[in-house]
Amino acid sequence: MAMVRRVMALAAIAAVGFMLVACTRKITRVEVVQGPQNCFGCHSDTSTFLVAAAQQWQNSKHASGETLNENFSTCKGCHTSEGFVARATGTTAPDVIENPTAIHCFTCHAPHSEGNFGLRWTAIATLQDGTSYDLKGGNICVACHQSRRNVNTYVTASTKFTSQYWGPHYGVQGDMLIGSNGYEYAGFTYEQTNHRGATEDGCLDCHKKTTSRNVVGGHSFNMEWGTDPDPIRNTAACVECHGEITDFSEVGLGFSVQDSVEVLIGELTTRLEAAGLIEAGHAKSGVTTSADSAGAVWNLLVAKQDRSSGVHNAKYIMGMLRSSILYMDGGLRQRDALARQ
Fold it and tell me: If pLDDT is split at 50, 70 and 90, which confidence band does 252 have?
């Protein structure tokens, strides 16, 4: 009986062996389809532009600024990548974003979804006071780098400084480049510097001008790195219009714009402190004042928070400061009185 079982087992094994020999294996060949979304077009070992962009970005405020990941209220739409992408795509971000990330590559670009490095945000730049201007590539910058408030409705006949944070939002660069949303006094003529029209892509033409240094230009967006006496400046961005310069103040007005703006900021600060309207560089909390006086505070804060010392729009920002000083000195009040007679 044991012999019979042994013979049957050997027969079964032999049958399986014949089946395996007769089996044919079908091999599926996987091909990498060449096209706009081919990974190796960007991620090859000979293409380094993404590596360079990442190195530049690491030196940017987008990567390491003090206000990253402010994940609440309306702040998350600019201070988190997820919030900005929701704005750009017309979707709704959660009240609180879990694991928010800083502004990074995929905040502005969607290469894996779109197959290219186009910008997510293309809507024409529109300020809070309704002023619009097409900065093309720079429109994505102004989507966040602008005041969150309309000066025409924020500054009223009886303005109360509810806290030290009263005033424009800290990123007012778009307002200054376009040249609007400052507090403008009756009887004063405000002029413009043409940086908005002289550039093809607004902010990007200057701030993204690639250099041989990763700390300025490119995706760092920095125009200056380091401190005096010898900072690194991306003055190469100015050459096309202004020629070879060594300082951003040399923008063709015949004087040092940045020094002049800083002097005007100091003069207006002195007057507003003496009037009890500002304290430690901020609006003095609890003060209630007139629109014209509050407007002078607004203009001072805009000039300081623009952080270009006038380069973005020298004529407009200097007009804001000069008119505010004239008002605080009584000059514009006399003009207004004469105009009403």
Answer: low
